[in-house]
Amino acid sequence: MGCSPATIEFSMHQKYSVRIALFAIAICVFATNGFAGSAAVDSGYTGAPGEQNCSLCHLSGNAFGNIKVVLTNSAFYTPGTKQRLMVTVADPSKIEWGFQLTARQTNSTNTQAGSFTPIDPNTQVVCNETSLTASKQQFGTSPCPSSKPLQWIEHTSLGNFTGQQGMASWQFDWLPPSTNVGSITLYVAGVASNGGGNDNVYTQKYVLTVPLPNQPNITGVANGASYQGTISPGSWVTITGANLANSTRGWGSGDIINGSLPTQLDGVGVTIDGKPAFVEYVSPTQLNVLAPLTISSGAGLQVQVMNNGLASNAGTISAQSAVPALFEWNNKYSVATRPDFSLVGPPNLFQGATTIPSRPGDVIILWATGLGTTTPAVANGQLTPTGATFSVNRPPTVMIGGVSAQVIGAALATGFAGLYQIAVQVPNGLADGDQPVTLTSNSVTSPAGVFLTIRATPVN
After folding, report:
1. From residue 138, how far is each of 92, 125, 189, 325, 410 by CA, in Å?
2. In this predicted model, which residue has the larger pLDDT, 172 or 130?
3. Lowest mean pLDDT among 15-29, 105-119, 128-142, 261-275
4. I need a labelling partner for 166 at 20 to 30 A (CA). Which of 48, 197, 353, 416 fits?
5. Residue 356 φ/ψ, nearest 5 degrees
6. Which of 66-70, 129-133, 159-163 has the lowest mean pLDDT?
7. How confident is the model over 354-368, as a mean pLDDT?
8. How many other C-beta atoms can be found within 10 angstroms of the C-beta atom of residue 369?
9. Nearest to 170, CA basis, from 69, 76, 83
10. 136 CB burial (10 A radius; 0-12, 13-18, 19+)
11. How many beta carbons lie within 10 A of that of residue 394, not counting itself?
12. DSSP one-letter code for 3
């Protein structure tokens, strides 16, 4: 750069610090030929106090994008505990990218907060004195020498991703200070370019805080059946962390009034995309909730827990209209029953319960979540009423052992919430043993690694 930035128990219950209030990271993404193609960008262009930002050298046109930093622990940090950070710059028409980032103590913006470590050839570290003298800076060293205490991380020439349209991301590790230094601020600046001098500059900062004693801390948000990072409206969601609740229990009949599901259990509530979720299970380290039907589609939906007046950090989850996922037994076998609700599975799957493999030609019921809307529709936050069939508007396709299975019907299970039952006929000709099973709905396929046990001959 020329410048010098029947009650069926699923596995949800079984699969299962310091808050950053004023933490400063500064990132500057540079994307002109002079910057994005450079293997070494001068330090001090993140927009942190006392620094310039990318706009000093990059003229901006009409900006239609953004820059984001995603942290493993969201708005928290634990002294001396490494976090993975991801910086993403998005701009629909641009094809060159770059970035620079620094972390500073908020109460002393000339004091470095932790250190960065590249994890691939797309990023590098820059060290410098507090004077920001260009001739004193040092590239490619981590950790920085004591004579050069300020540190930035930036893209390399390989990491400018020339020709990649619409978005670029970089990942690297950040090790916070070994002791609680109070709040830290992340300053981030980014540039996206068309390669011909038409650049857009994006800046952002993130404030991270030290949590109060017993403050809830979200460390993970996932689909409650597949444990993947995408959900759909009305599907089950599992939240993991610490201090999420002061008790351990699931909802009972006294918590569900006239079919309306509770938005709090024992003082614990959850919002997804700013809308109240329906709380089915609470414990100090895990919550299970039903996503409201009114959440938006897209990435980065915020999830927050309130535990008796204490707010957690913000977790994130993605959402789309249908995200099929099979519930599992023992993290391997699809939850499946026969029409009489006897259990389908390998023999002796559960102590004290009879499980029998399925035979080719059998009609069985698979239990799932995330299959989308039904006709008629179920009201937000209500148990599926009895007395009607709430058929899935887009029935899934089902594959067992790589063979398409006939789907007889797919509907919400009455008397439950967010629980779908899919009646299928097991294909003929399948070999004995564990056969993979998947659902596909709205062009989305459920995760691999879920099995149905087949036995062609009856079990004596």
Report:
1. 34, 8, 21, 50, 62
2. 172
3. 15-29
4. 48
5. -125, 130
6. 129-133
7. 95
8. 28
9. 69
10. middle
11. 16
12. -
Question: Is residue 158 within 8 Å of residue 122, measured between CB atoms?
Answer: yes
Q: Which of the pair, 35 or 247, is modelled with greater confidence?
A: 247
The angle formed by the CA atoms of residues 209, 210 and 215, to the nearest 5 degrees, is 110
- Looking at residue 189, its pLDDT comes to 86
Catalogue the E-assigned strands of 209-267.
217-223, 230-231, 236-242, 249-250, 264-265
**Contact at 8 Å (CB) between 45 and 132?**
no
Q: Which three-class secondary structure state does DSSP give residue 212?
A: coil
Q: Given the structure tokens 């007395």, which residue do they identify? A: 387
| Alpha carbons within 13 A on the beta-carbon side of 408 | 14
Q: Which is it for strands 343-344 and 355-356: parallel, antiparallel or unpaired?
A: parallel
Please state the separation of Cα 314 from the chain's center in Å: 11
Q: What are phi and psi of 56, to 5 degrees?
A: -60, -35
- Tens digits of residue pLDDT in 387-399: 999 999 999 999 9
Here the tokens at position 420 are 């779908």
CATH of span 325-454: 2.60.40.10
Query: How much is the pLDDT for 6?
Result: 39
- 217-319: CATH number: 2.60.40.10
For the ranges 30-44, 68-82, 137-151, 375-389, the lowest mean pLDDT is seen at 30-44
Q: Is 433 left (phi over 0), alpha (psi -120 to 50) or beta?
A: left
CATH 3.40.50.20 correct for 23-208: no
Q: Hey, what amino acid is at 141?
A: T
Nearest to 216 by CA among 282, 285, 312, 303: 312
**Beta carbons within 8 Å of 139's beta carbon, 6+ residues apart:** 40, 124, 125, 126, 127
Res 7 pLDDT > 60: no
**Cut 0.70: pTM above it:** no
Q: Which residue ranges make up each domain of the chain?
A: 23-208, 217-319, 325-454
Q: What's the CA gap between 78 and 178, in Å, rounded?
A: 8
325-454 has the same fold as 217-319: yes
Percent of the chain predicted with pLDDT > 70? 87
CA pair distance 417, 91, nearest whole angstrom: 39
